[in-house]
Each structure stands twice: as C-alpha cells, then as structure tokens.
Amino acid sequence: MSDTGGTARRNAGSTVRSGKGRLTDRWWVMGLLMLVLYTGMRMLINGASLWGALIAGAFYAGWMTWWLMRRRRRDGRAVGVEADELPGLERRMRHGDVPTDPRERQVMRGLARRRLAQMNRRPAVWAFVAMALVVAALTVLMAVAGDVTQALVTGIGGAAFLVWMYAMRRRNLARLTRAESRLTAGERGGPRSGQGRFAA
After folding, report:
1. Were both Cys, which of 13, 21, 148, 151 would link to 142 (CB 3.0–4.6 Å)?
2. Which stretches are transmembrane (predicted)?
C-alpha cells in the first residue's frame, strides 16, 4: 500500500517557506549539546567524575533527543508539514515574520494554536511547580547536611533558572497569542494586518 497520507503531507508542505535550516536543527547536534550541558552541570553542582557525568549525560541526552524529535514529528503531522520544516517556521514566528501566502498562514496559525494549547495544559503548569519544589528541597537538604556552599549554589542557581523559565514562558505566551490573533484576523477578512511583522 502506498503512503498516500505522507505523500499528501509532503505535497502540501512543499509550498511552505520555513526558512533555511540550521545545524542546530539536526537531531545529533541537539543531542551533543544536551550531553555537554548536562555533563558540565553534573560536574559543577554535584562534583561528579567526568565518566560518571558522561554516562548519566548520555542517557539524559538520548532520552531528551528522542522526546523532542518525537514531538516534532507529531506537531508536523498535526499542522500538515514535514518535521524538519518546523524549526524554521518557529523561527519565523519568533521573529514576527508574517506570511502572506494563504497556505503558509494556515500552517503558522495551526502551529501557534498548538503551541498555546501545549503551554496552557495543566501538566505543563504543574511541572514548573514541581521543579520549584525540587530545587527548594535540594537546597534544604544540603543545608541540613552541613554543605552550606553547595546549598547556596543550588538555591541561587535554581532560583535564577526558574525565574528565567517563567519570564521566557510569559514572553512566548504573549508572542504566540499575538501571532495567532494577527493570523486569525487575516483569515476573517479584516485589514491586511498579516503583512509585515507582528506588533511588538
């Protein structure tokens, strides 16, 4: 049996200008970056040995790369484009590059709505709360154990990371909401607000 669904998706996505692909869009580059970052963090925070951190990092990077690529494939199927086109589309959306082509507008609108739905789900919100509790618990445990320096590093570093994540989440929500609103306005036959860039 021929892959009619995949062929239709490829044909539909062939008109979408996702932008030039980047090296960091490749799965093996993503995995390598996560391996380096995780290994460095383990050695800095926990004082782990190089080989121990590398082994743990390999498992983490492998799982995260698999999860991210799986999500990219599912998102691509949901909006009707190939998975490798998504990073370029998301960059265009971040930069406020509003397409004028009806097909591109439809795909970008669908992607914006999907990202908004994903970010507003309860599990995503509770995951942030859980991370805050983990950081607080680790800080307290290290302080009780007498490792004040490590507790301070963990607490301050964890708090800074959580604040950064919260700020990025608010920024992304505002950008996605603005993009979805502008693209929907164009769909309803309003003024030609789809051209140019999203409002700041």
Report:
1. 151
2. 27-45, 51-69, 124-145, 151-168
